Each structure stands twice: as structure tokens, then as C-alpha cells.
Amino acid sequence: MAVSDYIAIINNFLSVNLDRVLLALTVVSLFTLVVFISVNVKLSAVTRRYDQLMSGMEGKNLEQLLMDHMADVGKVKADMERLKDKVQELEKEGRLAVKKIYMKRYNAFPDMGSDLSFSVIFLNDHNTGVIITSIYARDENRVYLKPVVNGSCEYSLSPEEREILAAATSG
Q1: Which tens digits make up the pLDDT trace of 66-97?
Q2: Could you list the residue range(s) of the whole structural domain that residue 131 is in?
Q3: Of 50, 77, 135, 167, which is most buried, counting CB atoms within 10 Å of its CB?
């Protein structure tokens, strides 16, 4: 069989089935058009997302932006560690700061008219600090300072001093 025979067979087939061949070509064309439109819609969505991602980049490389961001995150982590250490140091120092202050005014001598004498206690978290007592009399005023270590004092305490020491160490 020669090439001309094949062409004759194809021409004969097309002339007999022309309406079916045109219908098949139309269906394939419509299917191709639908696929093309679908791909185009997806591509425009990806393009929109890419444009949003790159907006404000002013020509910068996305990889460089990510590297800069990671460097910034590393700096923030280092700063957070320094701040954590500083907070722990401040908490340690804060335990030594005076936090408990109690006072009592009283009349040290029955023949005096007002509560002009007083005792005041200053303690930290470890119940360490001082008691300051001022005894007021008509002709003089005396001030006493007594150290307190871990909630106790090695000096003798007046009832008022014992009262504020108990209040400070229990509260």
C-alpha cells in the first residue's frame, strides 16, 4: 500500500464521518478551554499572593529579608536572656530590701499626757532589720536602735517592741 492509498482512506473516512469528527474536535477544544481558564484562575491567585508577600520589599531579596529577620530574632532571644538574668538578680536583691514596716505609738510614762513615744520595725523577707524606739520624757528624748536577725533580737525588748516584732514576723 502506497501513501496515496492512505490519504484516500483518510479522505474517504473524513467525508463519510465529517459531522462526527467536527463534533469531537469541538468537544476537545471546549475541554481545553475549560482547563486553560482553570489554570489561569489558579495562576492569578498565586500571583496575587506573591504580590502581597512581596509588597513593601522595595526590591529586596526575600531570602535576605528572612535572614535579617532571623538575626533580629536571635538578638531578641539574647536580650530576653539578659533580661531574665537581670530579673533574677533584682529578685535576689529585692529579698534583702525592707518590706515589713510596723510601728506602735504609746505613752512610755504614766504621768505624760500623749502617746509621744514610739517603736518602729523595718524587716526584709528574711526577717532581718532593725527596731528603732524613741522614748519621750518631759526633759529628754532617747532613741534606741536594736538589730533583728532572722526574727530575733539579742537585746532585751520592751513589750511594745515584742508586739511589733511578733506582728512583723508573723505577717
Answers
A1: 888 999 999 999 999 999 999 999 998 888 88
A2: 100-170
A3: 135
Q: How far is CA 145 from CA 73, 98, 137, 153, 170, in A?
A: 53, 16, 18, 11, 21
**87 and 145 assigned to the same domain:** no
Position 57 scores a pLDDT of: 63
Verify that 125 and 160 share a domain, yes or no. Answer: yes
In Å, what is the CA distance from 125 to each residue of 38, 93, 99, 122?
72, 10, 7, 10
Transcribe the chain into DSSP letters.
--HHHHHHHHHHHHHHSHHHHHHHHHHHHHHHHHHHHHHHHHHHHHHHHHHHHHTT-TT--HHHHHHHHHHHHHHHHHHHHHHHHHHHHHHHHHTTS--EEEEEEE-SSTTSSS--EEEEEEE-TTS-EEEEEEEE-SS-EEEEEEEEBTTB-SS---HHHHHHHHHHHH-
Give a yes or no: residue 53 inside a domain: no
What tens digit of pLDDT does each residue of 13-48 get? Answer: 888 888 998 999 999 999 999 999 999 999 999 998
Q: How far apart are CA 136 and CA 109, in angstroms?
A: 8
